[in-house]
Amino acid sequence: xxIECVCCxxxxxxxxxxxxxxxxxxxxxxxxxxxxxxxxxxxxxxCRMSYLKWRNNTEFISVLNRLEExxxxxxxxxxxxxxxxxxxxxxxxxxxNDPIDTNVVTLPxxxxxxxxxxxxxxxxxxxxxxxxxxxxxxLLFMQSNIFIPKGSRCxxxxxxxxxxxxxxxxxxxPRDIMQTSFSATDILTWLGKFRNHYNSIRYFDFDPPFSMSxxxxxxxxxxxxxxxxxxxxxxADSNIKNSSNRSFRNAVxxxxxxxxxxxxxxxxxxxxxxxxxxxxxxxxxxxxQAMLTHFVPHYLGFNHISRQEVIDxxxxxxxxxxxxxxxxxxxxxxxxxxxxxxxRNVLTIL
Length: 350
Hints:
The chain has 350 residues and is an alpha+beta fold.
């Protein structure tokens, strides 16, 4: 059984936990977490040492001693304490406008594998400090109703840039059904996450975790998902920034979709959920300039490759044997079908 600290929610080794009891300790934990406290539980050594340090504070020790002597259900109002001048002072609890979590609901949840020694995706033994991000935990719970406990580990091969690859995220399966308690604050937090997730959904989304299928990515952009990620890394140093209309990755996806499908900016405005077609035009211009600066010099033109690289990697043995008797010669075959002279011709440059 997994033992978690009631104060910091970290997992506790079977040799390093202490029982959670006493009104003073409950007061300490409640002040730190501001959450509903269970009647029983365990506390880790680190939190217990923090509690003891707070417990031995001379400013509170007399009050805490009196609290522990009284019955647990007695009121904490009207406790006598002494100030620095030695005068008795009547202490009352200050009113608070913060909501108190007194309502708790218990729900059965599909829980994935949760271990520091097993991968949550493939369930193989893993000796890695790579943990599943909070974004992936929330996304899987909202999409597949599978809850990944915080701190769960995974293999480094399943992660790119701190996020689980979408295919690996979909491979996660529940291991057990566990009754889990949610306070009112927890439910409000999850409602906010669901709302933000719904508002961020786009028809075509190139942002992580890049849930678009391989075929959809190729149909829209003409390149694979791996090539798209490579292109994004090449343009990472450009001046394109995230804006209210689109993210950097969606801007690149928009630029590749435009020539691939040949559709108008008005249609792209609807597909990519831009505010207007002028924003689409500005985005296309920004990405085009970034491509000219960071992509074209490395992959297009005579300057992006050396003569020896052409000979070693891009010369056909058949063309070399047919068109020249020198091995160290560059052979370029250029099709001149649509030249101005309107005569089909093949120009050979040795």
